């Protein structure tokens, strides 16, 4: 059997495919971007809270020095409780900031997503063969390249910053402690700024790659797209069969109506229109059937078999076919002509004329 040319997943995912993936919490997002924003947030938050943190640590150190010489068991509960609250004061603001930034960045990347599928355990994830395949996948290769690049970048940045500060560092042994602290702080700031810049560069590339990998993962074959169309709109064969059955049913009903009509007006071979009027039942004559070509021939055949008079009247047949729908009353413009036709048909039925 020849290979199905549509089996290869070369087509972009359809909007429905993307919506279904989103329902399963399968969205495109970059963890690198999130972690980079968190690091930047911690640095900025630490810088803004530097005085607050220093005051708490200084108070703890002062209390520890003041407690020197006191009985250990007496000062331990006091210093332990104070140290605990200092730890809370130093860590909680940064943890809350990280939580807020993480939620904001994730929301900006993926939007609102709610699904429990990611929490459902999957046996396929425990398959060692699949695990080995993932170890050598393109995604893991990209992660390895990113890790190597960031490590090399950090070493390079640290080397460049230290080289630029070499003259200041050589003078530190002869400087005051304040000068040492200033030099240390300046070095950390420069390394931090360059590191954040490099990490943001990597994050932008990673966000682009994650989008590319996500769309590639969701690619569809032509067969998949056709199957989706069938699911959304129904199988074309079934729809065609339903239309065919509906047409057959409508035509059968129309032909049954012809058998009970008063007269059939023709054009003479292209058009046929069946009229029905029953005094006291219908207010006006009604078009109960009409058709062209083969349908017109079928209407005439049924009329002849049922003894319904057939009259050739080209203008009336054309007018009724164009302007009056099936099961509708005739318009004012056809009253006189239809009245004459019905009178003629009634005479035919009584045997008064031919």
Provide a quick synopsis of the model.
By secondary structure, the protein is of the alpha+beta class. The chain is built from 13 helices and 5 strands.
Description:
This protein has 354 residues and is α+β, with helices and mostly antiparallel strands. It is 68% helix and 6% strand. The protein has 13 helices and five strands. The protein has helices spanning 15-23, 31-48, 50-66, 72-110, 128-135, 138-164, 166-170, 177-217, 222-233, 236-259, 293-306, 314-323, 335-350; strands at 263-266, 271-276, 286-292, 310-312, 328-329. Strands 4-1-2-3-5 form a five-stranded mixed β-sheet, sandwiched between helices. A hairpin with a 4-residue loop joins strand 1 (263-266) and strand 2 (271-276). Helix 2 (31-48) packs across helix 4 (72-110), helix 2 (31-48) runs antiparallel to helix 8 (177-217) and helix 3 packs antiparallel against helix 4 (72-110). The longest helix has 41 residues, at 177-217. The chain is rod-shaped, with a radius of gyration of 44 Å. The protein starts with 14 loop residues before the first helix and ends with a helix. Mean pLDDT is 79; it is low at 1-7.
